[in-house]
Amino acid sequence: MEVDKMDQNEWKYHGEGNKSLVVSHIQHSQVLRFLKYPAEEPGNSHKAAKEAFGHLQNIVDFSKNVMKPFLGENYVHHGEVVHLPLDFVRQLSLKVEQERPESRCDKVMDIFSGYALCLPNLTKLQTCRFSESGPPLCIEIKPKCGFLPFSSHVTKDVKHRVCRFCMHQHLKLANGKWKRMSRYCPLDLFSGNKQRMSFALKNLLQEAQNNLKIFKNGELIYGCKDDKDCLQDLNELTQHLKPYFFPANGLIHGPHCTRTVINELVNVITTALLSNSGTCRTGEIRKVHISEGRAHCDASHFHRDILRKGKGHCGLPKDCVLSKILQTQMLDNVDIEGLHPLYNRVEQYLGEFPKERLQIDGPYNENCFEKLRNSQSEDDGTVDYAVRKVQQYRVAMTAKDCSIMIALSPCSDDELPEPNLVIQTLKSRFTYSVSILDLDPKPYENIRHQYKLDGQIVNFYLKSTQAKQDSPTPNLFMDSEDCTLVLHSV
């Protein structure tokens, strides 16, 4: 990137979260991620530059030295911090302002420091070594936590039976966060059982919320731009996808069109999720099973008789993306209930010795991974043990909130990419890449909030399910691999 030749007209608004705003290059597969600040906060260029650089470099170091060793070299792109001309940044801010969702405009893009994080655009293929035969597709999935807590510190038995995601749906619905409850269950996706995975993915498509997005040539065509701005019409999505899966435009018309195309999409996603990171082969012999606790959630709507008999779990291929994420999530082996007293131990120590930060907020150097991976299992009552468990929990929380990016590019028959980078469908084939996004370190100060939220989620779920236990819920899906898609008008 030639920073002295930056032109704001070559960049466009890509998206934003609570703490950062992202723009993408119109031609090159690059994005710039800028920090955001409250609109009323006065700008101080010197302070902003120092804080922005430190914050962004911390994100790079955490991704590079902590998350990449846990999740795998091929999945994590840590990027680099770049310093941009302030005039370019300010002109770019004015350009993208009109494209931002109104609900996000309480914060403004950082125009004072000039620092940004430069990353590859993961909505486009990262392994493509030949000309693309059509606009790339990208499916972004936020899978959430894929296991039930097995810690002896858990005080409510329901946490051993119902996953956090399914319980949280009840509270989110009551708070007005979403209009309808999602029937997606993360444990189905992480099961390694293709029927359960297909069921989970179709439920995500049915009610995407902010857990699934689909991009075409970098533009969002399905999912939520923002909590209040959803593009969610399966019939319209089918029209986008049909040329990819049935390029000859034959054999697929009428009422079965949506169902057939969605089945093809789900099969491609499942294949990519089960592929090996090094060789991209499916069907790896070595499987990773959840050795602790149960492998299914009581709130899942998938074949309950099969789940009760324990026949719905196959295990994940050892180095597939879901396996890597799940193993990292399971660094949280004491649950938030067991972690909270350890957090209080650290807080008490910092209260007595306020000048010591115990490397809680970095630096995230090359030694961090070994310390976290080899942390002792028995509590010896020391602050050092508490700090390590807190750090393990934060890494696990990052893995629980990460996103998987599956980029697909149509591949014609006369092109010969590496065979292990190809997914073959009924009428077409794709080259693909799998990456992991959203790997920022979770704030240490957020642990107290997580403890309170955990109690709220569990208590509300118990209260709401007890009130509804005599009211049967209509099953929107058939109890088979081919679930029925219910289309909501938007």
By helix and strand content, what is the structural category? alpha+beta
Number of helices: 13
Beta-strand residue fraction: 15-25%
Widest beta sheet: strand line-up: 10-9-8-7-13-15-14
Helical fraction equals: 25-40%
**Count of beta strands:** 15
- What's the N-to-C terminus distance? 41 Å
Mean pLDDT across every amino acid position = 85
Tell me about this structure.
This protein is of the alpha+beta class. 36% of the residues lie in helices and 16% in strands. Strand 8 and strand 9 (219-226) form a beta hairpin. The longest helix is centred in the N-terminal third of the chain and has 27 residues, at 45-71. It is globular.
Quick rundown:
36% of the residues lie in helices and 16% in strands. The chain has helices spanning 45-71, 86-97, 164-174, 186-189, 194-206, 234-245, 257-273, 304-308, 321-329, 335-352, 367-373, 383-400, 447-468, and strands at residues 11-16, 20-25, 30-38, 80-83, 107-109, 115-120, 137-141, 212-216, 219-226, 229-231, 287-288, 316-317, 403-410, 422-424, 429-437. The strands form three sheets. It has a seven-stranded antiparallel β-sheet, covered by helices on one side. Strands 1, 2, 3, 4, 5 and 6 form a six-stranded antiparallel β-sheet that branches.
SSE inventory with pairings:
Elements: E1 11-16, E2 20-25, E3 30-38, H1 45-71, E4 80-83, H2 86-97, E5 107-109, E6 115-120, E7 137-141, H3 164-174, H4 186-189, H5 194-206, E8 212-216, E9 219-226, E10 229-231, H6 234-245, H7 257-273, E11 287-288, H8 304-308, E12 316-317, H9 321-329, H10 335-352, H11 367-373, H12 383-400, E13 403-410, E14 422-424, E15 429-437, H13 447-468
Antiparallel strand pairs: 1-2, 2-3, 3-5, 3-6, 4-6, 7-8, 7-13, 8-9, 9-10, 11-12, 13-15, 14-15
Helix pairs in contact: 3-13, 5-7, 6-7, 9-12, 10-12, 10-13
